[in-house]
């Protein structure tokens, strides 16, 4: 190894190398830790939906994109949270389906994984109308309405995109299920809205108050 | 110092030398073991570097494949685009691999390579964990990576991955605990918990690395020893096989020769007997045939006697007696027995003693006489004219135990070609086939004589120059001469004075040097200049001296401009400032036409061409013999017809070729006892009395040897190959010229080893050999067995 290589070239190469790798990793980290659009959900269970009113244990809705890879972690965390809850509520996994897609489109591994969790029923949401009604814009968005129809939790249950394990959202949802809600959380996942949709500000939601979100 | 003290001192020196030698060998084995272990470690590292280069590439491909499999797309409602994880795996993985794979291809085995590989491996772990959504199973990649990195057997390679892992956990745990632990307020020690598990594995792996490296070193050490032992065993086996093969060949050749040698006279006996029995033979022819039968019978008898002697001595069945006998009488007996034969050929046969004469020596007088008769008989047989001389002396054994009785049998005969010299001691071998036809003989005499002399504790060696004569030196063990009287040999008619070189046996120089020739002597060595100055002064010349090529060039130019140009230049070729080659070239360029005789210790044929190409007229390799020097000078500056200026001493040594340093004759150092008149000759110096004016120079040279060797050691420790080679070159040349021929071969070997193959151990060994030779140059007076009496 020449003196030039040892004193100048190699250190320079290493500095550049560390910089490039560090930059790449930090960008990946940024992407993974960037939350999706939070739900703009009403404080009480909206009227005019296809769902029955909430039972005494309330109702938990999780809006999912059937092909979102990040949402595997959300379903996995959902199973863990429900098993940990004192009284698991009726839970519906609402799978976004494009308006022009067939009935098999949402039947993915994610559907089957959600369907395998006790207390969880899966339904398709053609055109994302339900998601619009509940103000959910990101796959993994979970909304919990207690027995009296009040929303006590809104957000995701993972610490990042597709990241399994403990998270603030999971902890908050479990607390809400156990009757001691303490806040919402960020949600990480794919968007439930196609880019051709009208801007969110123009969306009109059929909530109980008819308020525009 | 008494003889016993001297012996004890020598034994102690030998033990110390042997201890040092063993320590050197042990150190060399250890060093070779270390080197071998290092080589093995580097080889291992290079192999693992290559494996990691492949592994990193595979991991990169696996990361991209995994990203595509797990997260092919990211969705926005019904539309999908390629997932950023795929780009991240491709770009980050590629960037991570760029440096370590590049280093693994370019700088295999270097620490920097494995450390960069270690970092890349940990970044790959991080990437994989990320791509799999933080699955706990993927964390095993880190532990597997550390284990694989440990196969470098370098615990330091674990440091960077551990620091990266611990640092990542610490930083993220402190500033974004949710990303690491999923909770906003993780305990501050949790990063330590994670790092602790990594450290736990590190400790185990580091222990394995250190242990593995130690075992590798031990195994390498063992391998070096085993290989060395194997090599020695192989050499021994090879030597034994060669010896057995030679013995077999010798036996076959012996049988074939014996059969032939016996058949020849038998054929004559049987054939002429048949002729005589036929009765048709005239009386005159009958007598002739009977003479032939008789001579054939004599020859057959001699042959059978020789064969029996040879057979006995070879099988160890020849009985030798060792009794006190008078060496002077043995010599006188040989002379009286052979003088008639010599006189018949018109040869003079003389014997003299060199040095003190013991009254008795302990040997087998009959066998010694047999040897001497054979050697003298051969000398007479192969000498058509001139003389045969015997020079006897007693010399101290090199091991200090007793003395040898040595007799040089010198003739002015045909001489023996160098390539035949060693073969003449083989049974049935003479210098050439025609010798037997011309001179007769069984061809067994020398073989028997050598074996008998060896059985008597000595040997026979020979030196010769074709057309000039031969020298056979026989030595036999003389026993311990302590208490033996020293006598005057002239009682037996043998003079006590050594032969002079200008006696009838000497050969006059072919050419003489003009005494008024202006000679420039160029040599950087003071000793060499003194030596050549003395030789030239003997020849009546007074040289001008220069210490290097540059000074010589200036002197030659100045003399030329002053119309006192030199008639001849003697030029050492290796000198500082300006060497002889450059000086000769410059002189020729400057129009100096004087013959230049190159003096160099190099004896290769190419050196002569190199000297001639530089402009030299002739070439003499060191050690330079005075006679040769003057003979060569005489060709260029011959004496005028009316000039008889060369002193006889100046051609000392011209009569008989001194054996070369490589010959057996000189290779065994001889210590001569000395009388008072010889005490000025430096101990161990082989210069004859005729060269007594060189003795002071030789003594100074001998005294300077320890300093010269110390300087060589310093050059060795500094790694100065050129300096060491030059110093050894001068030592080789000067030693040989000053009668220390035994130094020439090891010094020349040192010179060659220094300039061709810098093996410190081998160079140290050669220096040790020279040191041992130097140590042997003790003053003789203290070791003399007894005060020689001059009666």
Automatic annotation (TrEMBL), chain A:
> Which SUPFAM superfamilies does the record cross-reference, listed alphabetically?
Thioredoxin-like (SSF52833)
Mind telling me which InterPro entries this protein's record contains?
Thioredoxin-like_sf (IPR036249)
The name this protein goes by in its record: RedB protein
UniProtKB/TrEMBL annotation, chain B:
Where do the Histidine kinase domain residues begin and end? 257-480
Where is the signal peptide, in residue numbers? Answer: none
Reactions accelerated catalytically: ATP + protein L-histidine = ADP + protein N-phospho-L-histidine
Q: Which InterPro entries match?
A: CheY-like_superfamily, HATPase_C_sf, HATPase_dom, His_kinase_dom, HisK_dim/P_dom, HisK_dim/P_sf, HPT_dom_sf, Sig_transdc_His_kin-like_C
- Name the Enzyme Commission number(s) assigned to this protein: 2.7.13.3
Q: What keyword terms does UniProt attach to this protein?
A: ATP-binding, Cell membrane, Kinase, Membrane, Nucleotide-binding, Phosphoprotein, Transferase, Transmembrane, Transmembrane helix, Two-component regulatory system
The gene it comes from is: rcsC_5
Its record classes its membrane topology as: Multi-pass membrane protein
Region Disordered, residue ranges: 662-686
Residues modified to 4-aspartylphosphate:
572
Per its UniProt record, what CDD domains does this chain match?
Answer: HATPase_EvgS-ArcB-TorS-like, HisKA, REC_hyHK_CKI1_RcsC-like
Q: Where are the transmembrane segments?
A: 51-70, 82-105
Entry annotated with the keyword Lyase: no
State a single Pfam family of this protein.
Answer: Response_reg
Stated name of the protein: histidine kinase
